[in-house]
Amino acid sequence: MSDIFDPIPIENKYTSGVYYKRDVAIVRGKGTKVWDSHGKEYIDCVAGQGVANLGHCHPRVVSAINEQSQKLLTCTEIFFNDTRARLLEKLAGVLPSGLNKVYLCNSGAESVEAAIKFARLATGKKEIIATMRGFHGRTMGALSATWEKRYRQPFFPLIPEVQHVPYDKIEKITTAISENTAAVLVEVVQGEGGVRPGSREYLSHLRQLCDEKGCLLIFDEVQTGFGRTGQWFACQHHGISPDILTMGKAIAGGVPMGAVAMGERVVNLKPGTHGSTFGGNPLACAASLAALGAYEDENLIRRSLELGEYAREKIKNINHRFIREVRGLGLMIGIELKTKATPYLRALMQHGVLALPAGPTVLRLLPPLIISKEELDQVVSVIEKVLNEEKNGG
Ligand SMILES: Cc1ncc(COP(=O)(O)O)c(C=O)c1O
């Protein structure tokens, strides 16, 4: 009998049951690699669903957490705080132009939730226009804007006056916006919906339409933020600023945090209109401050752009009959297959590469931005190998 501690049966006994779980326990991570409870090593292109842009346990984040944890762990936003102030100033320096105010929270869905509330407060209107295949989180407001029916339907009634229009289609959104629209909420690159970059033409049309109709433009950059696409934020590829930008995932180097950045049209945020016990806590702020410093000093934003291009080219060159399309921006990579993605995800894992789905037929890679060319080469060659394996249908 092995004396290795096996977390799987215990988790299976007590866990909620709401996740599709893979049959593996990850117990350690360093840089681009994670290890399971049997000591097997993986290149991690899941990265905590796009959280570990700096890789795992980045030394700068670890030491910031250590230091802050000995000074002050919790400090509600009813008080000012030195670490929070430093973070807000640093974050303001990398945000798209025109976004000068920030609300801090604890997750991506929370940031979307706040964005919807702020848009309603600022405009006095109710209607939100979101997109087909869009994903914005699982809390009731964010879920209302999420497209996938099987996520939403069991929880009806959701918040009213949310409509979904096709993504990246100018005509549909033009006819959908009315004088009752509070905000248009879109991802700049749809993530869960299949890694689909919005075109510049579409995004700038949205900007123009929202200006004309007096409603707010919300970009959900929870997944695309913090260098994932090769800019601090994906909208900076196009020089288009929203009125509200939502953030999460990689904002704090692996520590839970979310944030909402806002421009001058977001008015009426008076004391008491929103809030969160843990929002702006010094531990997350210290981690985020360290993470932003690391993105900058290690040139990771530019690296993501270059390596993303490199990886997509290599994957296209596999030229396999099962690959329908290779999409993405920076190190946000989607490989649309002509067949189901799940057997390939499983096979990749067996060969030491962790990857994600994005809908039923898309393999999604969200590697840490610190990944080396050699590791990317290895990931691509494993993808080629599993596509060719007969048991997967190759
Ligand atoms: C674009 C987008 N928005 C919001 C969310 C929700 O974030 P969280 O899971 O932190 O609540 C996600 C999560 O995948 C996301 O990709």
UniProtKB/TrEMBL annotation:
Pathway: Amino-acid biosynthesis. Its cofactor is pyridoxal 5'-phosphate. The keyword Transferase applies. InterPro entries: AcOrn/SuccOrn_fam (IPR004636), Aminotrans_3 (IPR005814), Aminotrans_3_PPA_site (IPR049704), Class-III_PLP-dep_AT (IPR050103), LysJ (IPR037537), PyrdxlP-dep_Trfase (IPR015424), PyrdxlP-dep_Trfase_major (IPR015421), PyrdxlP-dep_Trfase_small (IPR015422). Keywords: Amino-acid biosynthesis, Aminotransferase, Cytoplasm, Pyridoxal phosphate, Transferase. It comes from the Bacteria. It holds the Pfam family Aminotran_3. The keyword Transferase applies. One of its GO terms (biological process) is L-arginine biosynthetic process. Signal peptide: none annotated. CDD domains: OAT_like. GO terms for molecular function: identical protein binding; pyridoxal phosphate binding; transaminase activity. Belongs to the class-III pyridoxal-phosphate-dependent aminotransferase family. NCBIfam families: argD, PRK01278.1. This is Acetylornithine aminotransferase. The lineage of its organism: Bacteria, Pseudomonadati, Planctomycetota, Candidatus Uabimicrobiia, Candidatus Uabimicrobiales.
